[in-house]
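Table S2 (continued). Query chain:
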Amino acid sequence: MTDHAFPSGDRATIAAEQPGRMQLKKISVSDGSSAQSGRSNHNALSRGEQAYRRLRDAIESRDLKPGDRLLEVELAKLLGSSRTPVREALGRLESDGLAVRDPHRGMIIAELDGSMIAELYAVREVLEGTAAALAARHASEAEISTLRQIADRDRAFAYEPERLAINNRLFHEALYRSAHNRYLLKTLNALHGSMALVRTSLAYSKERIELTIRQHQGIVAAIEGQDSKTAEEVTRAHIQDARKARLALLLELHDEMEGTRKNDRGSI
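Corresponding output:
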């Protein structure tokens, strides 16, 4: 069976959790008017940026999950703002691919099917491999020390998948910065936003955790040794293994959902 041997669309969607009402914690986004008309546009932009960043944070923290509806009125209330900055933020999320317009549900947090996840990881493999190769050439001693400290923390979180996932994200963000390529950094940060739609902590089996720990250590060792070829190879293998684990979990979740539906139909 190949990595693409699964249905696409709603039945193979990565949203393992049931989409429900938004659980976004209320946060104040300044909406006061300015007596100086010259400052009005700046303030509106500032409020839109605040709303956008808060919603991005909510997606990454899973307060907003794939399939959740994004209602302007409700979001404005939760954010403590008017609808204008919320509308601006939703437009940016749509441009980022984090929100989509569904013909029946309106604007929702994007749901990724198996093919989309495979494509996402394929791009990650190339870009992160390049980042690791560049880091082996350009990373400073301080940056290598940071990578080493983060990688060494993996073991402490071996039995805490959520914290391990956070540490993993920190490792990869540090790797991006260590490449010292502003255009690559910008592209990887945008890609990282899409990765927020994939709950990686669900794919951490015991074997996967051990492999992740070894691979992080291998990446750091190669960067320390200024071995760009090995750094790229280990990083690409790391992303390939992550893709396989994610798609295997997706198939498992799909089979469980199909089994539940059959049982439900049988009990009618």
